[in-house]
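stage 2 :: seqdesign
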């Protein structure tokens, strides 16, 4: 997508913290030819706005309260809006989510401590089809690289989730139809991958990396 010199660059923001959109609006107001067209606090509203008011660039927070809502927006943009570029703008996102964002076509990855002027300049470059030269965009491909030492398997996730709920190895084995020795082997693998030595630290690391949410522990 190349922006014509005479056309306003339109931007949409998807973030469940309204002050983020207000801060971007203030910065964008200083840039001629750039306009924050809309902001949404959840994925469903963002999809509605994309349908009614398509934008050149949509800025998406990956870590919103609603699980995977940021990825939902990226998926819709990838499938339906060829002329819209999506970028990630987030405080912190687990590597797993960043990889999914890259697969879904995100053109850049920016943390919320980025200088706002540099961020806006990068959005302009991305809108002009220069994502490869936009500052910070390289972080997306770097973070998106697979890390086999960190990625826990689905079965390991099941084991860790049950252990985190206070179940013993015997109880986990019974619930998952495994041998107790197999549960122990899974836990050893989890500890190694997450670089921890106990269940508490494994839970903390798994939550940080987005393998499951606090709600799943209830």
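stage 2 :: out
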């Amino acid at each position: 997508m190349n922006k014509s010199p005479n056309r306003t660059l339109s931007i949409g923001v998807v973030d469940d913290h309204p002050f983020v959109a207000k801060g971007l609006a203030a910065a964008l107001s200083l840039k001629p030819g750039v306009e924050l067209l809309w902001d949404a606090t959840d994925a469903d509203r963002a999809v509605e706005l994309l349908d009614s008011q398509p934008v050149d660039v949509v800025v998406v927070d990956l870590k919103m309260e609603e699980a995977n809502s940021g990825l939902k927006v990226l998926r819709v943009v990838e499938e339906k809006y060829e002329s819209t570029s999506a970028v990630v703008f987030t405080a912190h996102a687990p590597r797993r989510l960043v990889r999914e964002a890259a697969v879904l076509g995100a053109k850049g990855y920016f943390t919320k401590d980025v200088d706002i002027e540099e961020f806006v300049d990068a959005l302009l470059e991305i809108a002009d089809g220069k994502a490869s030269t936009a500052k910070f965009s390289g972080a997306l491909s770097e973070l998106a690289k697979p890390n086999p030492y960190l990625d826990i398997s689905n079965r390991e996730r099941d084991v860790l989730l049950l252990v985190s709920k206070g179940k013993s190895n015997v109880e986990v084995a019974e619930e998952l139809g495994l041998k107790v020795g197999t549960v122990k082997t899974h836990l050893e693998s989890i500890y190694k991958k997450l670089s921890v030595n106990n269940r508490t630290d494994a839970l903390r690391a798994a939550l940080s990396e987005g393998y499951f949410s606090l709600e799943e522990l209830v």
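stage 3 :: structure notes
- The domain at 9-143 is CATH 3.40.50.2300 (Rossmann fold).
- Strands lie at 9-14, 34-40, 57-60, 85-90, 109-111.
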